Amino acid sequence: MTLVRCPWANSSPEMQNYHDHEWGVPLYDEQRLFEFLCLEGAQAGLSWQTILKRSENYRQAFYDFQIDKVAHMTADDIEALMQNPSIIRNRLKIKSVINNAKVWHQLSKKQSMVDALWQFSPKEAVTYAQHEAIPAFTEESKQMSKWLKSQGFSFVGSTICYAFMQATGMVNDHLSSCFTRSRSK
Q: Cα–Cα distance between 64 and 97 in angstroms, integer?
């Protein structure tokens, strides 16, 4: 029996594995949420497959996305990362990861960042059929983006936030025909 997946997942074995085992699985681990927020920011203007192929390199470059370690990275670290061909060498995106770690670290002293992010998850589930277009952003992702920006985060526009919400299971955008639809939120 052939499994029916969301069409985008069939573009490569890596994308298929990501779709089947990660994308849309509700995630409540603070470090992994931070990682996904950073990787989605790195994706801006690029394909997810480009970032997915480099995700292990990003983990190595940014201390497995350990927030306190990333928050203490320096200008020298930025210069070293600008020479690292295994990640996207965009200075603004690299600085954003470090900035966002600093902001996250400070906010997490006052509140649960897991709760802060999950508050934007829509209360009502939406199901998309094969022929329907999935939006690039929603009212909830616009609200998340606005809140994150107000706290000092960067590379967190509404489209990035929606991709983050999809990836971390805050929304379930597996198509109604997809075999993973029922296992998600």
A: 12
Contacts of 107 (CB under 8 A, 6+ apart): 113, 116, 151
List alpha helices for the chain, DSSP H: 13-21, 30-43, 48-61, 67-71, 75-82, 91-107, 113-118, 139-151, 158-167
Average pLDDT over residues 24-43: 97
Going by C-alpha positions, the residue among 96, 169, 153 that lies closest to residue 145 is: 153
Q: In whole angstroms, what is the distance from residue 125 CA to residue 76 CA?
A: 45
Whether residue 184 has pLDDT greater than 70: no
Amino acid type, 55: S
Residues designated as active site: 18, 40, 48
pTM exceeds 0.90: yes
Mean pLDDT of 76-85: 98
Task: Work out the number of other CB atoms within 10 angstroms of the CB of residue 130.
Answer: 11
Ramachandran region of residue 88, left (φ > 0), alpha (ψ -120 to 50) or beta?
Answer: beta
CA dihedral over 163, 169, 170, 171, signed as positive or negative: positive
Return the ∠ at Cα 59 (arms to 76 and 66), rounded to 5°.
75
The set of residues, in sequence order, having a beta carbon less than 8 Å from that of 33 and lying 6+ positions away, is 27, 113, 114, 117, 168
